[in-house]
Amino acid sequence: MARPDLTDPPPPRSTPKCGQMQQQPLRISTLIEFAERHHGDVEVVSRRVEGDIHRCTWTDIARRARKVAQALDAMALPAGARVATLAWNGHRHLELYFGVSGSQRVLHTLNPRLHPDQIVWIANHAEDSVLCFDMTFLPIVQVIHARCTTVRHWVALCDADQLPADTGIAGLQSYEAWMGCHGEDYSWPSFDENTASSMCYTSGTTGNPKAALYSHRSTILHAYASALPDSMAMSARDSVLPVVPMFHVNAWGIPYSAAMVGAKLVFPGPALDGKSVYELIESEGVTFAAGVPTVWQMLLGHMKPAGLKFASLRRTVIGGSACPPAMIDAFREDYGVDVLHAWGMTELSPLGTVCTLKNKHLKLTDQEQMKIRMKQGRCIYGIDMKIVDGDGHDLPHDGKAAGDLLVKGPWVIAGYYRPEGTSPLIGGWFPTGDVATIDPDGFMQITDRSKDVIKSGGEWISSIDVENIAMAHPAVAMAACIGVRHPKWDERPIVCVVRKPGAEIGRDELLQFFEGKTAKWQIPDDVVFVEAIPLGATGKMLKTRLREQLKDYALPGT
Amino acid sequence: MARPDLTDPPPPRSTPKCGQMQQQPLRISTLIEFAERHHGDVEVVSRRVEGDIHRCTWTDIARRARKVAQALDAMALPAGARVATLAWNGHRHLELYFGVSGSQRVLHTLNPRLHPDQIVWIANHAEDSVLCFDMTFLPIVQVIHARCTTVRHWVALCDADQLPADTGIAGLQSYEAWMGCHGEDYSWPSFDENTASSMCYTSGTTGNPKAALYSHRSTILHAYASALPDSMAMSARDSVLPVVPMFHVNAWGIPYSAAMVGAKLVFPGPALDGKSVYELIESEGVTFAAGVPTVWQMLLGHMKPAGLKFASLRRTVIGGSACPPAMIDAFREDYGVDVLHAWGMTELSPLGTVCTLKNKHLKLTDQEQMKIRMKQGRCIYGIDMKIVDGDGHDLPHDGKAAGDLLVKGPWVIAGYYRPEGTSPLIGGWFPTGDVATIDPDGFMQITDRSKDVIKSGGEWISSIDVENIAMAHPAVAMAACIGVRHPKWDERPIVCVVRKPGAEIGRDELLQFFEGKTAKWQIPDDVVFVEAIPLGATGKMLKTRLREQLKDYALPGT
């Protein structure tokens, strides 16, 4: 700065209210523009429904997303219209992610694992205008299409020559014919960053499905937060395998965060067996993978007998349900892969916490670290959380007090999509329905679902704790703990158990197994042996169904 | 989800426009709230002006920031009022960062290295109401205070008993007395995220200083982006040493990103010599440090003769000016420290690019990687950039074409603070004043400042290239290349050279040294030996001053 040049400042004026920074709305289209401009040659690799391995780049995805946008324009589909998908993880699904939301329509990812009746109900509730589906799901679409009253366009995610002649679905088009006829020239529209971008229905265990309606802003902020070193730590050096489906809360946002950092994306398609996933990890140099525990169980089950190792995989994020400690150990010690627990839900876009260690933990022993790793983790900035008692009073973050977990943040829902009137929030906080502890370092651990916790004589018993003890018995294949009415204690726990094939175990033997493993009053009052425990579409135990089945059950001595 | 429970969807309704996500403004106060709630016991360590090492935690910083806010309230200071600082990196400065901005005032970090006349000019232009200063700068304040016509409150960053009796500054208070009398109970106010949060004047080499006026939104988005793995990769496992001053574009945003991820912060105070910095790195387990090349030169200068090594340091980010390759090598090979080049400017909050490798580069040789590492790096998502020719037409990203570098993004200024009327933007893009190339992988390399590039016969000659060659000669201490008028070629380069003490070198010998190192027409036409090259307050060469000094110079033969 040159000294002699100091002319007098202008005369005083009013106080500045706003900063003078560029107003650039946080829009999903800017992600794909960025990936094309700065990481254009980075690959997107898909194992397709057809069985082959498809290779393209972020540039290809960007170009084809622009064609999708124009195909929607050509249908005269208005802003905000819902475009549904019934699809596996693959490049065409990715193109729809950007083409639909980028052109100001709402991407609605339907879960093909639901019962057809449920899919129909959800498509009608969302009033989907277009439905794009993988050929795997043609039989489902053939069953439901006549009942999806708002869907006017059916698009099969395949080449024109793969479209069967007579599907019975009027006007069915192939994706490649539908979008392929458009050019690559297209400018993404400008609009407010709070505009709806995508929606996802919850797999609630009771009541009708409810939808989270995400915005462009919430999606971008979630992508920033989830790529941070303490979250998924995603970079341009990563090759990322989202095993978690793109119909499960947007594959935990990975399609967006991968575009944000220019990571290579590897899609498994429908092949989620251990062998297929292993081969993809090795052939595509996957460094980071994300999914639910069952997938990793299958993967390790394939690798162990064959003595296989990973060449490139360095870390996995596991969410959806708690990961058994033995699996975390196996990944770390036998395969050199860091396993991170994460916790989230549809209403949180989904990421709430990730279990990465703090500086102070680095000097702990492996065993001490494992105690922390088993927790669901700590908040990423943007999310805040607290636990409250039955009266809504804050409970201490001491790692002991368990209470209802509430969260807030810019990627947490304010309400469900229709009905809009009834806000689920409590003083601005979203009640997660989970019961949890939070320790002084901010690490949260889910102890139960609110509706599954057993309230016995004013104290809470975690159904998950009871189930974990039962399942540690070598003769137990599966266990579900529920509360039953008790004249004195209000509720008492019983445990429903499926025996392993050929295994024998009786009531008293199992109850004895609890001795010394938990407080006496937390030991269940009874064991009910059952053939099977009812499971929902996403593999969660349906305790409501179990309670119905046992509605005539009476506790011994009551 | 229970199947039998599918009641009919509600009747059709209008298309959703907005997502239904929580509206949580991006405010700086939420950073310090987050750090307190989730990383409360993480340390903030400061070497103070007093010479001692001060230790506190994020909880302490949060509590004291709330006291600062109340001290400002007690002064009845309105929203938007400017609170200036003249201070080193330390915990009290950090408290002001959060206390001032969090309470809706504007933090104005003054650069104490400027001439007192410039500080007066800037304080008057900004209309600062309060000025807080480290005791080191008491002599400056004593010189300027009478001329700072808008400042009503003077606060010395010290304990009450350290305040000298007679400073001549009316109403001078000690920081500890000023804010210490307030309680810790305080709720941060709610306001729009585009509200002004802080300001920083550019150290321009011509004209009057100009200010960037940052917003809460731009600051938070910048913090997210700068903590990403491809940027500064900051996490709760880091101990971070910002050697870059908090009066230089908010220490590159590190006070904010450290709070965002719960990192330990280590402040060097005024002691930036090699020994002090080294001792702090070792005693505080610093894993990551950020600063300009001169600081690292001093650090290595201290370590090398003594054979010292780092126990914890893993990476540094170097910005401000290009880092000599030899220094990058030394850090990597001798000390195992990764050196990242970064590029930014006051108008960019400051981060624009960081030079982290991509997946495809990992298999390159060290030498090939070094070629990439020497570039200024690639965009972090949020920033976009392009290069244009003299007519404003886009130039290719081929790593060869050099043009004016333009940037845009939500943490780039839209205009300067007063005058507001004259937008510096060109079609929404901010012209950086740098000349650069961008390669097909998106890596940008600064080749010159726009105003320093020499336009010879329609071609551009990079003054930096010429200087780098000259400075590679063992007899040259410093070199500055400028253009002078030429009747045929419009401009031709000459190089002004300061010889090393005792070294001898003549004009012809130095010009011969250029042979084979650059194209013939890019070799300077003359060498002018000078005693010294004028430097600005931040160590940059003042070529305008040099041009003035040589205004009577004529090229040989013209």
Give an overview in words.
With 558 residues, chain A is of the alpha/beta class. Helix content of chain A is 28%, strand content 23%. In chain A, the strands form five sheets. A nine-stranded mixed sheet of chain A has the order 2-1-11-10-12-13-14-15-16, sandwiched between helices. A seven-stranded mixed sheet of chain A has the order 7-6-5-3-4-8-9, sandwiched between helices. In chain A, helix 1 crosses helix 3 (91-102) and helix 1 (28-39) packs across helix 9 (254-261).
Largest interface: A-B, 120 and 120 residues
Mean of all residue-level pLDDT scores of chain A: 92
Estimated radius of gyration of chain A: 26 Å
By oligomeric state, this entry counts as homodimer
List keywords for this structure.
homodimer; 558 residues; alpha/beta; nine-stranded mixed sheet; seven-stranded mixed sheet; 28% helix
List the helices and strands and how they pair.
The structure is a homodimer of 558-residue chains.
Chain A: H1 28-39, E1 43-47, E2 53-57, H2 58-74, E3 82-86, H3 91-102, E4 106-109, H4 116-126, E5 128-133, H5 138-144, E6 153-156, E7 173-174, H6 175-180, E8 196-201, E9 211-215, H7 216-227, E10 239-242, H8 249-252, H9 254-261, E11 264-267, H10 274-283, E12 288-291, H11 293-306, E13 315-318, H12 325-335, E14 338-344, E15 351-354, H13 366-373, E16 378-379, E17 384-388, E18 403-408, E19 430-438, E20 444-449, E21 454-456, E22 459-461, H14 463-471, E23 476-486, E24 490-499, H15 507-514, E25 526-529, H16 543-549
Parallel strand pairs in A: 1-11, 3-4, 3-5, 4-8, 5-6, 6-7, 10-11, 10-12, 12-13, 13-14, 24-25
Antiparallel strand pairs in A: 1-2, 8-9, 14-15, 15-16, 17-18, 18-19, 19-20, 21-22, 23-24
Helix pairs in contact in A: 1-2, 1-3, 1-9, 2-3, 7-9, 10-11
